[in-house]
Each structure stands twice: as C-alpha cells, then as structure tokens.
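Minutes, project huddle
Topic: does the predicted pose make sense with S-adenosyl-L-homocysteine bound?
PN asked that the exact inputs be recorded in the minutes so nobody has to dig through chat later. Recorded below.
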Amino acid sequence: MILEKIKKKKYDIQDIVTLLKAEGEYLKLIYNEADKLRQSIFGDDIYLRGIIEFSNYCTINCDYCGIRCENTKVSRYRISDDEILKTCKLMQGYGQTTVVLQSGEDPFYTKEKLGALIERIKKETSLAVTLSTGERSREEYRYLKERGMDRYLLRFETSNIDLFARFHPDSDYEKRIESLNNLKQLNIQTGSGFLIGLPGETYEELAGDMLFCTELDLDMIGAGPFISNPETPLNGQENPFDKEVYFKVIAILRLLNPRAHIPSTTAFDAVDPMGRNKLLQRGANVFMPNATPQKYRADYMLYPGKPCVDESGDDCARCIVARLKMLGRNIGQGPGHSIR
Ligand code: SAH
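Predicted holo structure (tokens), as shared on screen:
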C-alpha cells in the first residue's frame, strides 16, 4: 500500500501519480491521513503570515502572471516604508507573527533599501520577516539576512526544464535553482513551490514537482493552481487538471514532508469559496491573510478571481480569526520558524 511506502520513504514517482488519481474512499483516507499528520506535528496551531504586496513593478514577463511587465493595464505602485510599517503594526494587533513582503522583480528596491526596511520592521515590531522579491544574487541574500531577514520565498514554479523555459522568457531554470541553493547554504529559512497545472503539464510532471520539493528539503512548501489570466499570453489556456487534483497535491505534500510548513495558498479560494478552509483540514498549517492596503489590491491581480480585492487588511485579519474559530483551531504563537 502506497501510504505505508511513503511512511517508510520507499516510494517512486508512479506511486505519487497513483495517489494524484485517487478517488472515493481512498481519497478520503489520504485527506484524513494528511490532517492527522498535520495535527500530530503542529497540534491545533495555525501560523498567520500577513502578506503585503508592496510593489507591482516588474521587469520580467512570466507568461502566466498578471503583473508581468508587458501588461500595460495595471497601474504600477510602490507602497512607502511608512505605510508598510503602519500596516505591520496593525497586523501584529491581529495575532499575525510574520510579515511576508512580496513584489515583482523591482530593481528600485536595492538591497540597501530592503535592508533598511527590514531593520525598521524588526526594531518597531516583533514580526518575523519573509521576503518574496524574486531572484537576487547570493551577496544580496547574505546582506538581507545580516539586516534581519528571517526567511525567503521563491517558487521554482515547475521542475521541468522545458516547461520552465516555455513560460519564463526571461528566466533560466539553472539560475532559479542556484538561487534556492544559495538561500539554503546561507541558512535562510527557505520556502519554495510550484504552480499546479501549467498548460500542457502531465501527471508525471506534477508528481516530479512534488518530489523535487522533498529533494530540496524545504522549510516551507507553497503550491497553488495555475489560473488562466486573460491579460497574459496564456489567455484561454486552461489548467489540465480538475479541481480535486489541486487539493490532492497539498495533502500528498504533507504526507511526503511531515515537518514542513505548508500554507493554504490564496489561489485555492479563487477556485473554491471554501478552498483555503478545506486545505487547513487536508494538511496545511499556515494561512497568509492578505494585508495589502485595499487601494492597491486591484493592481496586484496575478490571476482573475483573486479573493479579497474589495476587502481591507482589517477585513482579512478578522476573517481568518473567524475561519479558525469555525475550524476549532488556534492562532500559532511566536514567530513560527522552521521546525525541521
Ligand atoms: N516576483 C516574485 C513574486 C511573484 S508572484 C517572485 O518571482 O517570486 C507570486 C506567485 O504567484 C508566483 O510565484 C506564481 O507561482 C503565482 N502566480 C502568478 N501568476 C499566477 C496565475 N496566473 N495563477 C496562479 N498563480 C500565479
């Protein structure tokens, strides 16, 4: 039985493909096992990591992404350090213990600018700081760590070199992996992950992405479904998998990586109104409420149907507290660092 093989770490890619095709009672068993495993490692605590999408300027053109530089329909914005700080303080009041600062690939933010921002956040709040600002040099990562950065989040997006090249006209697969290795070697807690269902992707390729996460030995694994964005070259190209597969991916990732932090990612709410809640019952142990001030949200539409565009940071903060109450879970206390 495959679940036994996973416990003994003796599985192969075909086993994962079989699990991805599971249905009925067997699928229920997979979800149940993932939930039990999450509970046995993390208890009832869900860590809250508010995300501030602080700049949508981007110099590159990932084919799937709504803020790719050639999309002229977005108004470009940068949120001032003062407004970011103000937002961080509000987040802290709602029990969020990490701020995730995410942006496009925006060279305006030199390492010095980001370093100064991180230092201010660390001085004025008790939040842990995660950055998600794309590929940077080893020297930049080292510098940011020195200024207080706790973690870095950079998805490899797909571990298939041909798919990677097809959808990333300006990026190089080897360089992306080198960036991840640099982060790990510098002892920065590293999060990565992938898009579930790029156009043309097969079950084997998807299973390959899942195995690659385990190989990278990540502190955090984030994956969400590809959603076709009409303002991109992938307009009309649909996700090859059905919705249930997206949920299976997260549950199986938990079984494969018992001690990794696994967030319930935003894109799941775009495909199912209860998507993120369901994931918290199928292996995920982290929630990333959107903390971006409301007026910027419509310009950070990576994909259509991204939830909470009309909500404020306060609305999202209250919403997650209500969700956790409904699920009988607690807000995780403390920074929620890696437990690997
Ligand atoms: N510039 C940063 C942040 C990118 S946006 C970086 O490169 O790391 C954050 C994530 O959104 C991306 O890593 C990608 O996986 C996801 N994303 C972008 N477009 C998407 C789409 N159309 N559907 C689903 N997820 C998408």
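Observations noted during the meeting:
- The two ends are 27 Å apart (CA to CA).
- The chain has a mean pLDDT of 98.
No decisions taken; revisit at the next huddle.
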